[in-house]
Automatic annotation (TrEMBL):
InterPro entries: CAP_dom, CAP_sf, CRISP-related, V5_allergen-like
Protein's name according to its UniProt entry: SCP domain-containing protein
SMART domains per record: SCP (SM00198)
Keyword presence, Isomerase: no
Database matches in Pfam families: CAP
SUPFAM superfamilies, per database record: PR-1-like (SSF55797)
Biological function: Probably involved in the defense reaction of plants against pathogens.
Entry annotated with the keyword Nucleotide-binding: no
Source organism superkingdom: Eukaryota
Organism: Malus domestica (Apple)
Record keywords: Pathogenesis-related protein, Plant defense
Domain SCP: 42-174
Amino acid sequence: MKDNIKMKLFSGGLLGTYLLISTLFWPSLSKPHELQSSTPYNTVQQFLIPHNTQRSRLGLRPLKWSRKLEKYASWWAHQRQEDCSFIHSDSKFGENLFWGSGRDWKPGDAVAAWAQERSYYNYRTNSCAQNKDCWHYTQMVWRRSLKIGCSKVTCRGGDTFMVCVYDPPGNFIGQKPY
């Protein structure tokens, strides 16, 4: 049962439908080499589609999958595989982390958890509700972020750890995400 989650610093209309369909069926029209990946295509889409659905709701450009960012995310996830410690990599990229108890977590579960933070974000004040986290969500929809790469590992103890990295990074103090 999916009852233990940790996260740390997460209606599209016609545009959302177009973005969803184009992401599903034509992801490599602009630069085919960008999607070549060691991560299975369906796993890439499980990370990418929900991110771009959130972005389309705000009229933002879709993120593109980056092999470079995927490699970095994979490297960091494997650094955490032994202990599943919820530690950020302190890289030059934006970063969202997810930990779930057990092996049954999917990429879409991590992205959905980050997206749920939308309800805690106040655009007017550019802040999170008191005692709530919303910075995963703002990283997902950071206007200047253009590329994403993610990775998922099963930790030694059997839990799931996922990392998504974003370039350019977001969540700069004093700046609104969109």
